[in-house]
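agent> fetching stored inputs for the nicotinamide-adenine-dinucleotide docking request
agent> found them:
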Amino acid sequence: MTDKILILPGDGIGVEIMAEAVKLIERLKADGLDVELEHALVGGAAYDACGKPLPDDTLTLARQADAILLGAVGGPKWEPLDISVRPEKGLLGLRAELELFANLRPAMLYRQLASASALRPEIVAGLDIVIVRELTGGIYFGQPRGVRTREDGQREGFNTLVYSESDIERVARAAYDIAMKRDRRLCSVDKANVLECTELWREVMIRVGRDYPQVALSHMYVDNAAMQLVRDPKQFDVIVTTNMFGDILSDEAAMLTGSIGMLPSASLDANGKGMYEPIHGSAPDISGQGVANPLATILSVAMMLRYSLAQADMAERIESAVGRVLDQGLRTPDIFTDGCRKVGTAEMGDAVVAALGEK
Ligand code: NAD
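agent> prediction call returned; pasting tokens
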């Protein structure tokens, strides 16, 4: 059956990088990929057109789609707006409405770019890990929360870390499924020595693991995980963790690679439907100049093929094509180093499409 992909370019460089992703998908269609593309507005562009960052039409198309590819939203033009209609609300609305509870943040570093990292090349070259962050629960959403005044007149702030067994189980299953598609090693990160909530987290991870005997499960406290990520990041395959720990560790892992223009991400629901997007924003400082790096979005297409459309072979073709283009020495300005050839957004996109056909 034909899979439906909803294309949401968004704002700023979102429009430029999405054009390259669409070029790539069109080329894969010619090679037999059975997908249909729909296009819609989100973020500031949607606000300008109809006064809402997430128009009803866009939400309807998103519900009907098998996968969503998003560029980026936001920009200075919309910063003075009331928070309820800011571009970012479009993104948050999609995540909430579609119940995208599992956030996948891969940190991979092509060996050709190892010098871009702040860490020594031998520690990071060839890095390929995925962090699965629970996205819709935990301390960012738990009730009760607030700031109150105590009887002694002091104010105190409080938040609640809460996860039900079913919240933990669904993100556990998503993480085990991902580990099954990779090297079958899953590290669950918690603080079970201090937080009862993550004691339950650990218990449920072990229970769900009985359904995945091929996956080797390990556990690590979050403080140790933060250290291990900079000491020896290649020891990990898939990490699964809570919303707040994942927020912090996934940014730490992204920095290991040193290049924001290279990193894709995904947010998945319980059925494997997902929204795929680069981790970077709309980059207003370079928007409209044709110099944005389209590779994070192109690699988001690869993730979409692997995790929502069951096309692992095509995903690998894209990832290898990106490797070949880097081997050829082509670099957008954000990843440029001496001895390489500087190219713009469209030239980089064209080069990846051309490299798809090579072996
Ligand atoms: P940003 O990620 O847009 O840019 C940070 C820096 O990285 C900039 O110097 C930018 O030029 C560079 N950069 C980012 N992507 C690049 C690419 N593909 N190629 C080359 N260079 C790239 O973050 P910011 O400047 O903090 O935010 C700008 C706007 O984007 C804000 O409105 C923010 O709210 C929004 N934002 C959106 C998302 C999203 O849509 N998921 C994420 C983060 C920020």
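agent> quick read of the result: Residues 169 and 207 are 9 Å apart (CA to CA).
agent> awaiting further instructions
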